[in-house]
Amino acid sequence: MNQHLLYSLAAVLVLGLIGYAGGSGMPYLFGVIIPYAAMVLFFAGFAMRMLGWVKSPVPFRIPTTCGQQQSFSWIQHSKYDNPSNKRDVLVRMLLEIFLFRSLFRNTKNEIREGKVVYNLEIWLWLFGLIFHYSFLVVLVRHLRFFLEPIPALLKVVEMLDGILQIGLPGILLSGFLLLGAALFLFARRILIPQVRYISLTADYFPVLLIASIAGTGILMRYVAKVDIFTVKQMTMSLATFSPVVPEGIGGLFYAHFFLVCVLFAYFPFSKLMHSGGIFLSPTRNMANNSRAVRHINPWNPKLKFVTYADYEDEFREKMIEAGLPVEKKE
Amino acid sequence: MVDIPNADELIQIDRTPGKESWMDVPPDLSEGRFCYPAKPKTLEYLGLPNARVWSPSDEDWQLPPDWQKIVHEGFKERLDKYRSLKVFMDICVRCGACADKCHYYIGSGDPKNMPVLRAELLRSIYRNDFTMAGKILGRIAGARKLTPQVIKEWFSYFYQCTECRRCSVYCPYGIDTAEITMMARELLNLLGLNINWIKDPVANCSRTGNHLGIQPQNMVEIIDFFCDDIEEITGVRPNPTFNRKGAEVLFITPSGDAFADPGTYTYMGYLMLFEAIGLDYTISTYASEGGNFGLFTSSDMMKKINAKMYHEAERLGVKWILGGECGHMWRVINQYMDTMNGPTGPKMEIPKSPITGTVFKNAASTKMVHIAEFTADLIRNGKLNLKPGRNDHLKVTYHDSCNPARAMGMLDEPRYVLQNVCNNFYEMPENTIREQTFCCGSGSGLNTEEIMELRMRGGLPRANAVKHVHDKYGVNMLSCVCAIDRAVLPPLMDYWVPGVSVTGLHELVGNALVLDGEHERETNLRFEPLENAEGADE
């Protein structure tokens, strides 16, 4: 097993155990101090990273054009793959953020009998999409622990999530989809040799962390069945900044809760910041209109170049001989 | 020169990565695997540092004494200047979607040619120097120390990237390896690590106005020679002017088209087109280069070379500039020129075709129009008398050049022209055209002889798609709008798909175009006899 995978597995396991033990040993630390610290790190860290990126200017207009430019009225312009104004850039960005437009283009190829053959590769896109949307639904669902009364919209989300109406308590799809998609992403990382070759600890760790969060959550809901009222009492106390740590919440909850804290705290310092960075990617968030509208580079340097006068000075005689017009005869 | 294996051997490509970490695999810098370095004389002329005689196969590269500091500070400066670099260093999730999108990876199977890993070569140093996790955790955080071997690896792999941007089409965050390669090459340049095939053209371009070092009197002679040929073939002699003040349009095209076949035929096509429509234009011997190898060096060098275009347009008092067929030239014009060297002088106007009256609003600020746009508009408005039947012996396909495709989006204008100047046009498979087009394998200054094997490998996916239409439809002519393509696709075709020739778009235009008062043509622009050509389409 490679070291990056080993470190990540070990880290997630140890962190889970710390959370499990911490709940019974130091409930105030694990129930109050660490969660607050994690949230501070998350928001402050996220803002700091975004500001750090924004601080660097965008000197050139460098969209990757993925379709026909706007030119003549009689040539169909590919507005959203090659936007020429802000409105169409916005649509392009929405397609990227909500539908992973670029990744949808993905194919895979191999060389078979002297031919490069292209095959459909929809899985990364599909499981990526499932992963992100189920994560979103899980997050939204968890707002029920921090809000009272529970908003109607949240109840609609829960109803849709439990639409299968199987089991008791009813199966909520999002948790299982999240776990399944995380495991898919993990599996492809170790099974595809090229992806394994490029993978770092920073790749294995977050996906395993999220899978364990989903796993412990599922265990609590369907198997170990924590006392949900006590948990809500605690989470509401955190949400209203009057923390109390009730007795009798099991270690499994603390394992889950601590892993979530680790995720939040780790988030701004990891590749998970792609969630913020995607908004700032100059190849996607700019219009391809730099021939029509001048883009300004704030640090555009003044540079000395070989001017026509320099050129004529060097070649004047030859130019005159060749019958070319010159500025100065001597 | 190192011999290269034959095509059947070369296509046996193993993509299985090795067992050990990529960080421990040294780059292969044996003869044939690297471009020759720039000569000291050239670097001195350009005012670039650390001019010396050296070879990438040397053990000691004679780096400047404080080379680590130079790289660190150069890196920091660029992180502060380019949001693209900063964001691209941070947000890659290594999903691997880009991995098999690179033509060099497909052709070599070398894992460091996967765009993600190419970027990691730089990211690993970024993490070490600029992130806390990298400083503390080192390799666990994907960081590593900057050693001479890292520099060698950069030199090897950032000169195995043609800045074609294909990977960036598929990246969910739009991470553009071209941007990363450009930054890495700038850093290498700070240490005096550059290649002759880029630096010589840059020096030539500064001094003589064009990459090939053609002096003014020779430029006039060459074009005069084209006019002789056109007159012989058609009976009509075009009369181009040079450095003429007061012309309406300044025409700028890559000097490669003046220099070697088959680009020369494309140049003849331009001259014939201008003659046919009576365009009031002039050619500059000073701004006599459309291409810009500065793009492959540094943004400063790009700016200095590009500055000549507006400088000359202003001096001559032209209204707008018409640009010829070239790939990276159009990346510079579309995405950099106006920002770097604009706004244009007061005498320039929004380009308007004097023949059709069409206003090119999409070029309102740069005031520079692509000749494929210009010609498409002429054809659309019925201003050209064309006999596409003269190209009936050709079965034509079209190679989208990387930059017009992915840094501009000029996809359908050249196709419209093609469909009007020839009757047999076949598209290559959709995974290999338009925004998904494959590089010729020799772009970004890598069109040099000493790395021929690498070029054949890099060109494999393109050639393979040509082979597909060659086998299926009998395609025998590969058309393109790029001067580097015209120089490098012929050897690529000879290697992978013998029987396919290469042409510029305007060579086909020139052959189909009927000039006022021309005599019956017996040959095409290549002096090849036309069998049943005259009026074959009527």
Q: What is this structure's SSE topology?
A:
The complex is a heterodimer of chains A (330) and B (538).
Chain A: H1 3-25, H2 27-55, H3 86-99, H4 101-104, E1 107-112, E2 115-120, H5 123-142, H6 152-161, H7 173-191, H8 193-198, H9 201-224, H10 228-239, H11 251-266, H12 274-277, H13 308-321
Antiparallel strand pairs in A: 1-2
Chain B: H1 7-10, H2 40-46, H3 67-81, H4 83-90, H5 103-108, H6 115-130, H7 132-137, H8 148-158, H9 166-170, H10 177-190, H11 196-208, H12 216-234, E1 249-252, H13 256-259, H14 263-277, E2 281-283, H15 299-316, E3 320-323, H16 327-341, E4 368-370, H17 371-380, E5 396-399, H18 402-406, H19 412-421, H20 452-458, H21 460-473, E6 477-480, H22 483-496, E7 501-504, H23 505-512
Parallel strand pairs in B: 1-2, 1-3, 3-4, 5-6, 6-7
Helix pairs in contact in B: 2-11, 3-4, 3-10, 6-10, 8-10, 12-14, 14-23, 15-16, 17-19, 19-23
Output the keywords.
heterodimer; A: 330 residues; mainly alpha; Fumarate Reductase Cytochrome B subunit; 2 domains; two-stranded antiparallel ribbon; 13 helices; 59% helix; elongated; B: 538 residues; Fumarate Reductase Iron-sulfur Protein, Chain B, domain 2; Glutathione S-transferase Yfyf (Class Pi), Chain A, domain 2; Rossmann fold; 3 domains; four-stranded parallel β-sheet; three-stranded parallel β-sheet; 23 helices; 7 strands; globular
According to CATH, the homologous superfamily of the largest domain in chain A is: Transmembrane di-heme cytochromes, Chain C
Individual helix count of chain A: 13
- The side-by-side strand order for the widest beta sheet of chain A comes to 1-2
Strand content of chain A: under 5%
User: What name is given to the CATH topology of the largest domain in chain B?
Assistant: Glutathione S-transferase Yfyf (Class Pi), Chain A, domain 2
Q: What is the helix content of chain B? A: 40-55%
Give start-end ranges of low-pLDDT stretches of chain B: 533-538
Gross morphology of chain A is elongated
Q: From the helix content, strand content and strand pairing of chain B, which structural class follows?
A: mainly alpha
CATH domain class of the largest domain in chain B: Mainly Alpha
| Total number of distinct structural domains of chain B | 3
- CATH topology tier name of the largest domain in chain A: Fumarate Reductase Cytochrome B subunit
> What is the terminal separation of chain A in angstroms?
77 Å
What is the count of helical runs of chain B? 23
What radius of gyration of chain A results from the CA coordinates?
A: 28 Å
How many strands in all of chain B? Answer: 7
What structural category characterises the helix and strand content of chain A?
mainly alpha
Quick check: average pLDDT of chain A?
95
